[in-house]
Amino acid sequence: MKTKTPSWRKTSPASYFLLASITFLSIFPFYWMFVVSSNTNAEISKSPPSLIPGGRFLIVAKKVMSAEGVFFNHALLNTFIVGLSIAIAQVMFSAVAGFAFAKLDFRGRKSFILFVVGTMMLPSQLGIIPLFMLVKNLHLIDSLLGLIVPALVTAFGVFWMRQIIDAQVPNELLEAASIDGASVPRVFFSIVLPIIRQSSFVLGLFAFLAAWNDYLWPTIILQSPQHFTLQVALTQLKPMYGLDYALQMGGAFLATAPLLILFIFVGRRLVSGVMDGAVKG
Amino acid sequence: MRTSWKAKSSVAFAALLAITAGVLVAPAPAAEPVTITIWTFGDVIQRQLVAEYKALHPEVSLAIKKSDLDPLNGTNMVTACTSKTGPDIVAVEVSYSGYWRSYPKCFQDLRQMKTSDANASAGVAAGLSASDIKKNYLAWRWEQGVAYDDSVIGIPTDVGGLEVAYRVDLFKKAGLPTDRVAVSKLWRTWDAFITTGQKYLTKLSPADKKSGKAFVDNAGTIYAAMMNQGTEKYYKNDGTDAGKLIYDTNPQVKKAWDTTIKATEAGIGSRIGQYTSDWNIGMNKGTFATILAPAWMMDYIKAQAPDTSGKWDIADLPVSGGNQGGTQLTIPSYAKNKQAAYDFLTWYLAPEQELKVFKTYGLFPAASVLYNDPALLDYKDPFFNNAPVGQIYAKGVLQIKPIFEGKLQRAIDQAIGAGLGRVAAKKMDSKKSWEQVLVDLKKVVNN
Amino acid sequence: MALLKDVQGSHKPALTPWKKKSKKEDVFPGVRSLNGRWGHLFVAPFLIMFLVFGLAPVIYSVYISFFKWDPLGGSEFVAFRNFSLLLHDSDFWLALRNTFSIWALSTFPQMFMAIGFAAILRNTRLKGKSFWRTILLVPNITSVIAVTIVFGQLFGRDFGIINGILDFMGLNRHIDFIEGIIPSHSAIATMITWRWLGYNTLIFLASMLAIPNELFESASVDGATKWQQFRFVTLPQLRNTITFVLVVGTIGGLQVFAEPQQLAADGGSSKQFLTLTLFLYNQAFVNNKYGYAAAIGIMITFIVIIISAVNFFITRKISNDGTR
After folding, report:
1. With CB atoms 3.0 to 4.6 Å apart as the test, which of A184, B294, C7, C95 could cross-link to B160 if both were Cys?
2. What are C39-96's pLDDT values in tens digits?
């Protein structure tokens, strides 16, 4: 049945203006990063600073890539490996455990999920020193594994998956399958996983993004330049005292650019994933 | 066929001869490849010298990790020492020397190390321990690398020094003398510096004043400058390792505080934080006419405000020389490649190399033997109106006396800095702010 | 560790915002026929990793909160001294004030804006829907460090762009975003809002789109205006979403760390930037007082739990009272 569009559904010019403003504000910092990195420091220190890009971006980019101790390509690869590993691992671990919390009955289920949620309220800075000693005893200092292993599971990931599976996988489907004689693992792999594929992708994406931008733990763990991830490599660009705006913004821009490119491809999926996760099935 | 005893022994003898000859003639095994890991910040470890060392020693690779200063000299070093894993060399900035001097167990005593002959051809003789090279360096800078148990934990790279960088053109506009000798005479005391500042302010137009123009970039820098001109800071050497805390009774502290407050309240500072974007812009716009500048800041000014080239000059600091910044290179006790690290370190810090670093980066050498070297003394900087910066800074650093530094030095500096900041931001008056400082310090010391 | 809440510096992404099951009904949501030991097996991998890497460090930290511990020095058992010192420490109360202030400034305006933008975006006749929605997520992918450098320039007291705009508008005063207390909190709140507004807008948009059209039709048949429809149809349906965005936002918002640390690592001269987690971090890693820091961590956890619970129950109550 076709419903008449209520009159308030026409979009006013004011609304478009607001949307344009929000778009401008969202993009402006990236644009600004580009402007700063393509001008000289002296240009930026003028007031008002130049608002248009200069011609130096390629020069600065080259400087960043060849800067001592940066090994940009290595860092890019390392960051990618770490991000991908963490994303895949978190999705797998969280899906498996989330499925258990959502659909299986076992002793301690209720109290455990509450406990897991409770730990999300603990400040993470607290655990750095003991975690470092733990990682050291596992001989994972200065290795990418030292970044990946502690991040394999998160309370948040399990909680998210539990909600997703609860919402998107109807009990009837699982009942029917088990009546047909399917075992629990079979049910999980053949029925549940395909249904939650979209949302899993989103969880993985967010885990990837978080790993990409993480700086605190990697700077503590990684020690040799060839093992650096991008954020740590960027700190190599800092001069002795103060800031070298052009160089650092250039580095930041180059480190964000792959994400922007990725975003062009998966942005829409990310949006639908966020929105799906927000609505009851 | 029966081999005769004679034949057997000749064979044996020949074999022995052959083996010996082989051993003697065979080439000495190639130098073992070794990787020296270095943790540093900024430009302390200079790229060109690294390349030079690699050319001298192809088997040595230097893996350098740069970090922000505070995590590096703080968390990272603490974690490394507690877990006993870490690099072979760590750069420690002087603000942290008070702290690390109280933990000699985290460092290799460099008096126990001796240089090998690896760099003999490059000018560093073999068999030198820290005690042997001590004489090449500025005494009070050397002290900052000596732990409380007298072990030598670090050797100095550079010394910040402190002089006054001033804008010749702005001084001229304000009717002040412009020649650096005359300018140095203007402010033999800190009070005279403040008075000069006030005179400068009277010559500013109302529009200038409104846009925030003032005499010095930040009056708060006066505090640190004055504290380094004394003989005691926050601790008294009472024969124990830790020393006695005297921050609340040392008259030098009160004097530095009061003078800084006086300068702040006279309005001679533009209240801009150093290294903020406002500061960089301010340099270009002439928002302030003077900066208390260590030697390494000159390069920074050149990079941020190249259009002001030739408009600056360097004059003496009031009272006597001062210091801001400087680094020691240390070898942690848990380092894996101590000998290789020591060889590199002694080469890198040899006067010859420190001179090279000065020429490229403006880091003023702590190797005081250079202070008689014409290469240093004749060095003039065109950006600073051809001031003989080598001479000026050398004179300044030679006037400084060693100060006993204690473990909580940096924390105390920060609390006092915050106190001065509150007064500058007009959040509290001087008396209340000082009381707050005392409350904060009590927590730092006791908690 | 790539924990979202630490990296992004504040709120976590909102979770599914439907009604939490009340304690009375213990309806098992799963499938009876799939029981057995599978539950434990499936949870085991997560459980093991979590215990080792997530929990053990925390337990250790709780343990050392009863000690005065300097990792390079010695340790000394002090029982509850750290906690009593903490309650008497004016810095703790300052950090509490700052954290709440930043939380309020970054949560509530953002919520209003998110709902407002969602309302605009829900219009089916909007041109370029997909584009607007995608752009909203862009701020979320930047690193905190890059953002603070950019915003640092924006907020400069003398020459920053914002103050430049004020000049341009003819106002003579500059705002000191570093020294001022509310201005500095606003600066942090702005950065947080910038990062999360788009995300939360999408959450609200999804919830709005799920409201059945019939409700609007019957309201407009009854003669309700556009604004009345928004107030009496849209908003009530959003109550659950609001609850969850609020609760999750609180958990993250009370732990803001990266932005204040990048702007003023020591907390600022009047400690205006000192948030609870920055306070913890500095006590541990700058002052080397790990025992004290651990005590702070435990206090933070309690505060977060209490405030989240309060948030939850208040919005539940409003939701229950207000439904027609």
Report:
1. B294
2. 778 888 888 888 888 788 878 888 888 998 887 878 889 889 999 999 999 899 999 9
Look at residue B339 and tell me if it is in a domain: yes
Question: Which CATH architecture is the domain A82-232 placed in?
Answer: Orthogonal Bundle (1.10)
Residue B7 touches chain C, beta carbons under 8 Å? no
Over residues A140-151, the mean pLDDT reads: 87
**Record: contact C159-B278, CB cut-off 8 A:** yes
Q: How far apart are the first and last CA of chain A?
A: 23
Those of residues 198-237 in C touching chain A at CB distance below 8 A are 198-199, 202-203, 205-207, 209-210, 213, 216-217, 220, 226, 229
What angle (nearest 5°) sits at the alpha carbon of residue A245, between those of residues A38 and A76?
75
Whether residue A48 has a cis bond before it, omega within 30° of 0: yes
The reply to whether B274 touches chain A by the CB within 8 Å rule is yes
Cβ burial of C74 (10 Å; 0-12, 13-18, 19+) is exposed
**CA proximity to A75, closest of A222, A208, A210, A250:** A222
| AA identity, residue C25 | E
Do B207 and B109 share a structural domain?
no
Residues of chain B in contact with residue A224, where contact means CB-CB under 8 angstroms, are 37, 63, 65
Note whether B138 and B107 are same-domain residues.
yes
Task: Tell me the pairing of strands B89-93 and B34-40.
Answer: parallel
C120 → chain A, closest CA residue: A15
Structure ipTM: 0.78
Q: What is the chain B residue with the closest CA to C149?
A: B277
Q: Which two tokens stand for residue A269?
A: 């999926």
Three-class SS state of A141:
coil
B283: nearest CB among A44, A45, A223: A45
Domain that holds residue B148: 34-159+326-372
Query: Residue A88: what are its φ and ψ, rounded to 5°?
Result: -65, -45
Q: Is C52 on the interface with A (CB under 8 A)?
A: yes
Residue whose tokens read 């105390």 = B412
Q: Do B138 and B43 belong to one domain?
A: yes
- Most confident range, picked from A203-207, C95-99, C221-225: C95-99
Domain extents for chain C? 41-322
Per the model's pLDDT, the better-predicted residue between B69 and B346 turns out to be B346
- Would residue B210 count as lying in a domain? yes
- Mean pLDDT, chain B, whole residue set: 88
Tell whether B25 is covered by a domain. Answer: no
Same domain, B133 and B234: no
* B179 & B268 share domain: yes
Question: Which of C85, C157, C285 is opposite residue B278, by nearest beta carbon?
Answer: C157
Integer Cα distance of A160 and C210 in angstroms: 20
Distance of alpha carbon A266 from alpha carbon B43, whole angstroms: 40
Domains held by chain B: number: 2
| Whether residue B204 sits in one domain with residue B240 | yes
Residue in C closest to A48 by C-alpha: C159
Q: How far is CA A119 from CA A109, A156, A162, C59, C301, in A?
A: 16, 9, 16, 11, 9
Q: Homologous superfamily of C41-322 in CATH?
A: MetI-like (1.10.3720.10)
Is A238 within 8 Å of B41 when comparing Cβ atoms? yes
Q: What does pTM read for this prediction?
A: 0.81
Instruction: Decide if A185 and C1 are in contact by the 8 Å CB cutoff.
Output: no
Residue range B6-23, pLDDT digits in tens: 555 555 555 555 555 444
